[in-house]
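Appendix B. One record, verbatim.
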Amino acid sequence: MIVSNLQNSQRVESLHPLFKTLFDYVKSHDLLHAELGRIEIKGDDLFINNVNPEGVAAEKQVLELHRAYIDVHILLEGKERIGWKAIEDLETEIKPYEEEGDCALYSDVPTTFVDLLPGQFAIVYPEDPHAPVIGEGKIRKLIAKVKL
């Protein structure tokens, strides 16, 4: 997992050929006031889900794991905590991986937590089981999906 501020995104843009495209798009559009839903940038290779979820209590949130996409969680409004646990330490699968939806779910308790504020992002790779949207109240965030 990588955590940083949008203003420092150039430091990670070389890690994937589509990261610069993603961060340039986010920085040049007012996505806080854009419609909710999917934003197409490069078809299924790079898109953003613009969402406004209600925070979930830490003890009720599950870890999710993806194989085909890197997630880039970008907070626009509110405060979000994201839990993390090493993939090697996962024990309790509650939903096996399904290619449709690119997701497996685990009920393990995260070992590490990161708090995001508006303008910050977290990049989670397939080896990063993560429990997003932990907190109270509504938040506004982007979940970019970057194809491996």
